[in-house]
Amino acid sequence: MSRAFEMIRADGYALAIAGENQITERLENTLENRVWNKGEVEAFDHHFFRSVSRGSEVVNFDGVKISKKPDLVFKLRREHRVDWDQCQDAVFAECKPVDRQHSLTGHYCAVGKDCTGIERFIIGDYAWAMEEAFMIGYVRGGHTIARDLPPVLADAVRHRQLGSPANVEVLETSPLNHQTDRLHRTVHQRLFPWNNDDAATPIEIFHSWHECG
What we know:
Blueprint lengths: L1 H9 L9 H17 L12 E6 L17 E5 L13 E9 L5 H5 L10 H4 L9 E8 L5 H10 L14 E2 L13 E5 L14 E9 L2
Parallel strand pairs: 3-4, 4-7
Antiparallel strand pairs: 1-2, 2-3, 5-6, 6-7
């Protein structure tokens, strides 16, 4: 993700004035055509990934919602797994602005709204068959994961609805540059059963924030 944003900035793309959908479209294009297709990043290549797509329709955990549209879907290349649901075999990513107009409580960590972010993974709209997912933040105004995300996740108003997340864990010792925050991870309980009536296992959500100001 960081390499894609480096390329977008090097192209002179006006991230500061671009809307959420515009940034996501440019990110999809860059990831698909320049990062993945040319093997720019180790392990993000044709051996493990099939494609990157934006706004692909998917089905939720119980098949009631058939037109859910995660922002980005990274299809995995594991066709030899005949017991695997190929439609759900992917890394799902939801992208959200994080700025003065888009508060964490109103969007990224919102609950019970049409514009929720993390919640969609908790209630089984996205990535219900997987155990890992991504939240990508388009940051303006100097927000950081370590400072801004933990208190919102811990707030009793939304803590359970966001899967009673564990503490925010940093996965990188330092940012790659001043425009990319360190990668973090949270673990969430999920609030739906799988089709065999077993409770869905927890999901790891990786938080990748990038300056778009």
